[in-house]
Write a structure and sequence with these properties.
The chain is mainly α and 95 residues long. The chain has one domain. Helices cover 73% and strands 0% of the residues.
Length: 95
């Protein structure tokens, strides 16, 4: 889980600066829902392993959501909003 959060730190920072509140709410809500569903479905059989894997899946859902948006921003088709504080995509220097 530390790896998933560490890798996604740049794109999550980018997402916080450039996303609007409903988009952030959707991303965090989906990752929390994925975490709860995995944990609830497997906690009786796998106990701590289910909780750890659910947390990892939640972190990966949030990170993948942010990476996908950063990749779209790097290609120039992120969103139609024109915010004055919009910055370069954090993934642009890797391309």
């Amino acid at each position: 889980m530390q790896w998933a959060n560490g890798v996604g730190r740049l794109v999550l920072r980018y997402a916080v600066v450039n996303w609007d509140a409903p988009r952030i709410r959707t991303a965090v809500g989906l990752s929390a829902l994925a975490t709860l569903l995995v944990c609830a479905s497997a906690i009786s059989s796998f106990c701590a392993l289910a909780a750890a894997s659910a947390t990892l899946i939640g972190a990966l859902v949030l990170t993948v959501w942010a990476v996908a948006d950063a990749m779209r921003a790097g290609q120039g088709s992120a969103s139609s909003r024109s915010e004055p504080y919009r910055t370069r995509s954090p993934l642009r220097h890797w391309a």
